[in-house]
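Quick illustration, no need to memorize.
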Amino acid sequence: MKIIKTEKDYQAAMRYLSELMSRDPKPGSKDEDELELLALVIHDFERQTIPLVKADPIESILFHMDQMGLTRKDLTQYIGSISKVSEVLSHKPPLSLSMIQRLH
């Protein structure tokens, strides 16, 4: 186990992580301890090298609608009339604080 410094190190760590996971380590075992430590090292490398993606709130709403099989009409209880829902999903007015709270 070593600190990941390059993409090559990262790929090797990911392969080893996959191997450890396929062993289905028992709780408290050496393999489980190694898996947890490796996951932390990988997470640290990803946090330092992979930029965070800032999600657009409307894109997030559309994604959840798709995943949950919701229609624009289903959002009227959270946002208001169907025309208001259409406006919001078209990025016309920004989401209000009360809309955000109801959607949450």
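The mean pLDDT is 93.
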